[in-house]
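Lab notebook page, bench 4
Experiment: in silico fold of construct C2
Operator: M.H.
Input chain length: 262 residues
Purpose: comparison with the prior construct
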Amino acid sequence: MRFLEWTAKEMTPPKAYGSFHLLFWGIGLTLSFTTAFLLRNTKEKTNKYLLFGIGLFLLIAEIYKQLFYTFYIEHGSYRFDRFPFQLCSIPMYLCLIIPWLRPSKLKQAFYTFIASFGFMGGFVSYFSPESMCLNYWALTLHSFTWHMLLIFLGLYLFFTGRAGKSFKDFFPAAIVYLSCCLIAFGINLLCYDLPGPDVNMFYIGPKPSQLVISRDIVKKFGWQVNTVVYTLALTVCAAIFFAIYLKLRKKIPCKKPKEKGA
């Protein structure tokens, strides 16, 4: 509690497209792009350490956030709508898993998922940062840094060539996404009556989504229709990001280091 109180520095939530938002976004993008490009020839052993290190950092940051909300803000009461299983949370788990996997289709699918769905989640978040602009410095920096790391991971996997070489590599990543949707839906059902006004992992229901367009679809057609539309929309959007990556890959020097056993 002393540590949480020490880090609980209040702030006026930054405005979308204000100085804090634009500076963090601009500097973060520049550093992410430059660092990812410099690491384009990373060997597999270093790649494992890098991914596991980022995954460990994200895990520690998430544990801090959960403790901060639970014990400092909610005074010991846990809200299950903050359970860490949203689209932008999945790269944390994958970064901790990938280093232990041998070269395989599953490992390739995880790479492509991070570089498409994960990158998309981090990138798009900066265009509508209201949910990231909070009234505590620690939480705001946590959210801004988290989503910037997703952008870095996507760029890094792009420059190293680990994200896939053809559009057919996207389909296994889409299966990973749909599998996560099934797990998220199961969590939503299990936590439906538990504390938390919006226990809605991946925003697919059965509780109504609070996202701008989704909530209108839910009101008019029900959460089932929204689930199909929202899931399909994210898949198409991620596919577009991946298609752009494939287009740029032909023009920017990338290299895919050989993995042992590949």
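Observations: The longest helix spans residues 44-73. The chain has a mean pLDDT of 94.
Next step: discuss at group meeting.
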